[in-house]
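Input record (one chain):
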Amino acid sequence: MQYLLMIYQSEAEYAKRDAAENQKMLEEYGAFTQSIVQSGNFKAADRLQPTTTATTVRVRDGKTLTTDGPFAETHEQLAGYYLVEAKDLDAALAIAARIPSARIGSIEVRPIWVYN
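The corresponding structure, as predicted from the sequence alone:
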């Protein structure tokens, strides 16, 4: 079964980290990604640009409305994701717990709805 592991962390807190801390975390992400590629769990992953680059789209009464920025103000922002293959939720949760940002943010794990 496929699961989307959504990585949330505070952009404000990330900006306060020094270059050495950020470089160490990037190296940890590289090692983590290699490990799930080698295990066969990896399907896709991407890091997202900051929320300052986001545009939210709504359609109301047939009119398209756009707003700069994310839909909601939150303490943590969606920073990236992994799409993984796992035998069950417990396996997906174990993979999510190994994502480096789980130590400073949160990882939301959701099964993918497969259409037949």
